[in-house]
Records
---
Amino acid sequence: MKIAFVIALRNLMRHKGKSFVIGAILFMGALIMTLGNAVISGMNRGLSENIVERFTGHVVVISEAQESANILFIPMGKDIALIKDFAKVQKVLSEQTYLASYLPAARGFSFVLTEEGDVDFAMLLGVDFPEYNKMFRENVKLVEGKLLDKQERGMLISQNRRVRFFNDQNIWVKPIGFPLDEKNFSDEAKKYREKMIVKDSLVLMGASGDSTASDVRTDIKGIMRYEFLDDYWKFFNILDIETFRECFQWVTNADAAANLSKDTKNLIAREENLDALFNDSTVVAAKSGKAEISTSLKKLKDKSSVAKPNTDAGAYNVVFVKLKESGKIQERVKDLNAAFKAAGAPARAVTWQAAIGQLGDMAGIIRGALTGFVLFIFFVAVIIIMNTLSMAALERTAELGMMRAVGAPKRFVTVMFLIETASLAVIFGGLGILVGAASVPILKAMHITADNNILQLLFGGKTFAPYLGVTDILVGVIELVLVTGFASVYPIVVAQRITPLDAISRD
């Protein structure tokens, strides 16, 4: 072994040109694979940070009657099934020790009606806003007005939706109680300022396939944006959960004990008359009084006739769940579904990727493309190194033939070639990994940003932030070992086949 090691080092020094070529290939391969792993890891980390931690959670719970797991980016107007008997679902969730937190919510599509006779639409997310923003790390940022307080009625409109309202209907919405802020005008708004219709409240009519929606006027409390991946979440406007329920008329038989207003009862009675929903008399003021909320929106604290607001006791069609261990999503989804089934709770859990539909698919495609690129580099490096080593072996026919003539066995030749290749891999490949690792923080410090939606998915956010952890470095080392190993197989076979006769005939 010692003799093989000495001869291998001598051969490397003797054939410096070929050694350098092979080493340069190993260096570039290791560098590109390291950077590729850093980009993939950074993307996964960014998506986890900006989607899981700031919008969906690790797991999403939906009704067992919901056909598609994609409940966030479904076609406009398509209903999401209501989670029935939510008390059972909540009990199951509260008993699972592996959950870090969960937040029930409502997602829906609403028409926006105006006195001018125009009809537009809005995507709505009904939540207990302070709890929502707390759970998702204050991803909602204020542009104008104010954010919703605990149990406060009102709506937060995304700045993108505000621009769309103006482009579609010539309506510029502003927060109620706040002056018109012209510095936030879009280019179109500045151009047609004199013809602008300014509103600080809107009439919403939930688009329900059951024809149970009603008109609800709600104040606009603020204009907001999402701090991360706003280009994807900008379609969602936030509404307090109680107004959302009134808008979609989530009323059940248990509502008989609730103190409903006369207007609300008339709405329920006339739910089959679609034209009646557009009458002025059917508009329910979302801020008009606490007694207008149905039992679906409240939980009776005692047997008295006074209904106390409690959003946890009402109706929902989605629950966002965060886990204590983010690396066990699939396992926890199975555990939750088993727990729901055992408790007879009409719900099922899906992963966050499934819940965001095409967005998750797109992220998966990009991740797959990056992984494919790294594998492509891997195979290219194997082929190039293998060809180079094979040619080097053939050029050393006389040397190898003489070694065989003086009694060197095939095993000796194999060990010698492995030592030569391994030495190049350690020196040049190791240098490539070190340079790649050193480049990651430099690339991150450059704060390369992207406005393109696809690039934002690639970056895991607006800023390019590759990440290289210990695991990623180990993966790079394993890839280097595999490249070296695969690339050495055929050249070793070629070297073993060289005989003393080949050496004599070559001379």
---
Amino acid sequence: MQVKAVSKYVRIAPQKCRLVVDQIRAKPVAKALEILQFSVKKAADPVKKTLESAVANAEHNEGADIDELWIQQASVDHGPVVKRWRARAKGRAASIWKRTSHISITVGDSKGER
């Protein structure tokens, strides 16, 4: 059994989000939630929310036991980039790219692959 949850258009850079996702990949759900709870990274909150959504999907739709769930896949893809500019000296402009992320987490009964 595999259950998936996806958070799209999260306003954080994918590179920053991947640092958090790499810490929880192929771990039991309880251990992953503990890691995310005490993480100081900004990306820990949306990743934790996505993981809790995947666990809720597994419990509600499949009747899975939460204590036996493992993270089978966890990935972060880049979403659309919001492009802005900032005024600089001598009439120039500097570009600002506000990146977005798509966070995907799959949980299941068996241990995930690394």
---
Amino acid sequence: MALADRDAITVYVAQDNPTAAIDLDLGFETKAENARLRPKLCEAGRVKGTGQTVMRPNSASVNRVQGDVVEVLRVLNAAQHWP
């Protein structure tokens, strides 16, 4: 679901600003990699057993951290409700 979320957000932004969409997508990739390298830095999530990483001011990823593994469950825009 996270990849579909990421694609949908990027496509939506690209309708108005393709360059911003590319920058946004690269930012998602960088933040996900940072979460993978430092899983203990993920903030506590709204749902028990999850964490979150602020990707940009208006978007965040919902993660599940198990040991050294970070699974990105969703990438959400601030306008979306979670859970």
---
Amino acid sequence: MDRTLVSDIARKGGKAAHSAGTAHEFTSDEAREAGRKGGLAVHAKRRKAVADPQVAPTTPVADERLH
């Protein structure tokens, strides 16, 4: 589906939810907590790599038949 069409459909849904009064609006505290959780999730792999560094892969040995 075309990205602009998807965007238009989503925009209409958001406007309808707001006009019906059923849309969720984040408070500052909720937004802050969501941002904190997102930052933790995004950087989890980096923190794991720092805590447990991987050994660099060795270079493969050349096949002797090619020489």
